[in-house]
Amino acid sequence: MAQGQFALIAWTTLATAVGGVLGYLLRQSIAKSRAGTLEAKLQKKVQQTKEEVAELIKNSEAKASEIIDRAQKDIDQRRREFLKTEEVLLEREKLLGEKISNFDKKESDLQTNTEKLKVMQEGVEKLRSESETKLEKVANLSREDAKKELLSLVETNSQRDILERMRKLEETGRETLQRRASDIVAMAIQKCAVPHTQELSTTTVAIPSEDIKGRIIGKEGRNIKAFEKLTGVELILDESPDSVVISCFNPVRRHIAKLALEKLIQDGRIQPAKIEEKVDEATVEISKIIKDAGEKALYDLTILGVNEKLVQILGRLYFRTSYGQNVLLHSIEVALIAETIAEELKANAPVAKRAALFHDIGKALDQQIQGSHIEIGIKILEKFGESEAVVHAMRSHHGDYPHDSLEAVIVTVADAISGSRPGARKDTLENYLQRLKSLEDIANRFEGVEKTYAIQAGREIRVFVKADMVDDLGAAKMARQIASNIEEELKYPGEIKVTVIRENRVVEFAR
């Protein structure tokens, strides 16, 4: 019995051991199988990654090669442009060197002639001394008598020769200085290449069809009336079938009207509410145009450190004319000329250029502020932190103030050069625009006037009054008074129509 139990225990132990060994071997087999599968997957993934990396490298190399080719072409183009510019500069430098050499030679000749004159004067002194000694010995004359005789002799023999030589020296010096001045002015004008365009008092806008022209007029003319009231311009529709002419002496109003009309034509919906919306948009856009014009002028002239509000005021000159000349373009031209002259004369070129650019800045606000454009300009520059040197150089360009510095003289000369060149200015146009402005000024004096527009080439003035300040009877009375004032203060051919418009608009919202 005991042997049987022992055998059972032995077999049980053996079976357990064999089972454990078999289980271990089975687990090892399963683990190896799984490890092999995972390794295969990893190798496949690694291979895919290598292929993707190779593709990326290939694409990157192609793109890099393309970028390098483009960069090399750009470098070659810039190198050619640089070499071309360098050749032009070298040629100009050569010409300038020749002019300076000629000037130095003439200056040397003048110095030589001066030295010769000095030698002659020393010879005269020596001759006088010798003659005095001889006269004292031979004629037994007193020193005073000998002196008088000697002076008379010297004057008789040498005066004509000395005067002739002095005259030649003066003429040579004058001619040299005149040529030098001409060279400086010519160089300044050559370096100045500001394009000038002159607009009169009309602008043309193309229209695609006669149907659009009918929409612009509107039912019973309500659209064109609303447009003219809001913009202060006159629309002329019968001059050409494919265009509309905008007539107004004020360039800002004319440009706002042009932008608004183009927006309306593009939109296609033309009615009073839409007209008012587009005019408001154009007014905002014109402010950006004014700022861009000021910033472009400063960028072109490389002038830094200008107050933002002063930039805006400068840009307003783009829509200001003087004797038919665009004031902003004129100011840029004066700045370029002043800079060149200042460099030639060894003056302060940055101050001269800055003062020249701002010399007419007062004209941007002379319709809103009382006083001459010079006085207004001085206040503007001082308010926005311009230096005293710039203000002094600017204020004397019309002779109202003394020229306190060389830069002030340069600004005056540059302004005269720009304004006096052929075709720069037209007095007739300026007088015409001034007459239209005078018409509006007369109407603006009356209390209750909201805005005034001179149209029809000055043959009509439209006055818009505030409905809460002027009643119908007051509007009629105002029209008679304006007409009477025009008759007393202005001289004009024919007659001028005075139209006073009173509109009472009430707006309510249904909620």
Describe the structure.
The protein has about 500 residues and is mostly helical. The chain folds into four domains: about 105-190; about 200-290, Ribosomal Protein S8, Chain: A, domain 1 (2-Layer Sandwich); about 310-425, Hypothetical protein af1432 (Orthogonal Bundle); about 430-500, 2-Layer Sandwich (GMP Synthetase, Chain A, domain 3). It contains 14 helices and eight strands. It has helices at about 1-140, 145-190, 210-215, 220-230, 250-265, 270-300, 310-315, 325-345, 350-355, 375-385, 390-395, 405-420, 425-445, 470-490, and strands spanning about 200-205, 235, 245, 320, 325, 450-455, 460-465, 495-500. Strand 6 and strand 7 form a beta hairpin. Helix 8 (about 325-345) packs antiparallel against helix 9 (about 350-355). It starts with a helix and ends in a 9-residue tail after the last strand. Residues about 195-200 have low confidence and may be disordered.
- Indicate the mean pLDDT: 80
The CATH architecture of the largest domain: Orthogonal Bundle
CATH topology (level 3) name of the largest domain: Hypothetical protein af1432
Q: Give Rg in angstroms.
A: 45 Å
What do we call the CATH homologous superfamily of the largest domain?
Hypothetical protein af1432
Distance between the amino and carboxyl termini = 112 Å
Quickly name the level 1 CATH class of the largest domain: Mainly Alpha
Strand order of the largest sheet: 1-3-2
Provide the low-confidence segments as ranges: 193-198
Sheet with most strands: 3 strands, antiparallel
Element string (H = helix, E = strand): HHEHHEEHHHEEHHHHHHEEHE
Number of helices: 14
Secondary-structure-based class equals mainly alpha
Strand portion: 5-15%
Number of domains: 4
- In percent, how helical is the residue content? 55-70%
Overall 3D shape: flat
Protein name: Ribonuclease Y
EC number: 3.1.-.-
Pfam families: HD, KH_1, RNase_Y_N
Family: Belongs to the RNase Y family.
